[in-house]
Amino acid sequence: MDKTKLTDIRNTARLSSARRVLKALRSVKLAVSLLAVIAVVMIVATVIRNQSDARRYIYHSCWFISLLGFFCLNLLLCVAGGWSFKVKKLGTSVTHAGVLVMVVGVVMGAILGQRGYVQLGVGQATRVCYDDKKRAISLPFEVRLEDFRVERYSVEALIVHLLKEQAVRALPIKVGKEFEIAGTPYGVTILRYEPDFVVLGKGEYGSRSKSPNNPAILVRVARGSQNQREWVFQKFPGMHQNRGSTVRLDYKRLPGKIKDFKSKLRVIQGVKVMASKTIEVNKPLKYQGYAIYQSFYDPVHEAWSGLEIAKDPGVSLVYLGFGLISVGILFTFYIRPVMRRKGGVRPSGPGNKN
Hints:
The chain has helices at residues 3-25, 28-47, 51-59, 62-82, 87-112, 315-343; strands at 114-121, 125-130, 136-162, 167-172, 178-180, 186-194, 197-201, 204-207, 216-223, 226-233, 247-269, 272-279, 285-287, 290-297, 304-311. It is of the alpha+beta class. Strand 11 and strand 12 (272-279) form a beta hairpin. The mean pLDDT is 84.
C-alpha cells in the first residue's frame, strides 16, 4: 500500500472520529443529562442555609462554571445543527436559542460578576464592600445608611409576677389551658377572653364587638386550695387588682419574631444624591448595574444594617433568554397551530395530492 492511500485512510479515520465526537457533543440525550445534573446541583444550592457558601462552593466554583460551559457548547451545537426558519421548526429553534442565551448570561455573571457585603450603622457611608474571602471591592459611588428599623410581629402574653418567689413568667394567651409555674406552688389559667370588654350588668361581662378595642382576660391564680380570680386589662394595667396580693398580673403585647428589616439608603456621587430608596428583603436599590440588597442585621445592635452589593453583567442575557424561551413556546403551542388551520395545511397521505 503506497503512502498516499495510507494517508487518505488515516485522514478518513480522523474525520470519522471527529464526526463521532461532534455527534456525541450535539446529542439530545447529553443535553438532557447535563440539564438534569445542573437542576440537581441548583436544588442543593437552594436548600443550603448559608447562601455565601452556596455562591463560593457552587455558583462561582470552577467545576460548576465548567459544567455550564459544557452545557452551553452542547446547546450551541444543537441549535447550529437544527436551526431553521421554517414554520415547522421555528418555535423549537427559538426555544433552544433562548436556553443558550440564558446559560451564557449565567456563565457571564458567574465569571465577571461581583458580589460583596458591608455592615453600616445609621449615618455611616462607604465606598467599599468585601467578598466572601474578605477582599475589598471598590465601588464607583458612596452608599449612605440614613435609617434602619427592625419590624416584629407582636405577641399577646400574660406576665405573671410572683413577688415572694421573685419570679416572672410570660405565658401565651390560651383560654382554658392551665400553666404550672415551675419551681413555685402556683398554677395560672386564663378562663375567658373578651376583645372589647364591657360590663353588661352586676356580675355580667361581655364584648361590644369582635374588634380588640378593649381586650381583657379573666385569670385564675391557684395555690393549693386557694383560688384568686381577676380581670386583667391590656390598656388599663393594674385596674381592679389587689395591691396587697403577692401576685401581680399584666396583659401586654410583646415584640415577637422578626417580620422585616428595612434600610433607607442614599447613593451619592461627589456631593449629589443620585438615588434614594428604602430597601427590604427582595426589594433592592438598583443603580448603574449594581443592586444593593437588604441582607442581614446585627441582632445585638439593631441600629446596624447588613447590605449585599452585587453587579451581574449577565442578568440582561438571562432575561433575554427567558423571553426567547417564552416566545418559542408560545409560537410552538399557540401561534403555529392557528397558522396551520388558517393556511389549510393538511397532513400528506395517499389521498392527498399536495
